[in-house]
Design a protein that fits this description.
27% of the residues are buried. With 224 residues, the protein is α+β, with helices and mostly antiparallel strands. It is 25% helix and 28% strand.
Length: 224
Amino acid sequence: IYTAEIIYHLFDSFTKRVADVKAKKKEEARKKALWPCVFKIVDERSDRCSQICIVEGAREELFEADRRHSDTAAPAYWISSSEGACVCRCVFNKKDPYILGIDVLEGTLRLGTPVVIPDAKWTGDAKTQNPAGEVLEFGQVMSIEKDKKPIESATRLSGSVAIRIEQKRNMKEYTFGRHWTHESMFVTRLNRESIDLLKEHFRDDVPKEDWKLVVKIKKLLAIP
């Protein structure tokens, strides 16, 4: 019940109440809302095998975050090529927690984003995108670093960043080289609930191009 001697004050009180309720619901929705994103592992080439490819911050994060996996960790993953050069794959830890150097191709990668690896080829076009037959539930992005500094999110304009992906308890661990490779594409694990939350509470916060990406991922993950 709102009371006021002047009707304009009554209206202002009601308007403020509506805005407060809307802001509270938006903050609650932020915990479940997922932003669309597609990213891949950095692929850098070098003329000298002695050169080490390190995405900013990844080496420090690797040693600080997971010393217990030192047997599976490496500063880089090298493969010889026919030209005598080397291909550097920025996979710094091949087991949970996975530490990767990545480039965002589309959308926005945010902390807490659950990511999957679909087996269907990513075409970047909703009209030609085929649904994935199998989707690997890879884990959740728990840290993002750029220039050795933690950041909340990354886009294509951010350039290469280092990320740490952790799995929840009892999740299946996937082997690098068998279940996933340097060519794997990672996408946000969107679902109907997260898309509806974006529409209801963050419609104006999501860029137009990211809404187009939502449509592409819906097709890829066969979201109704």
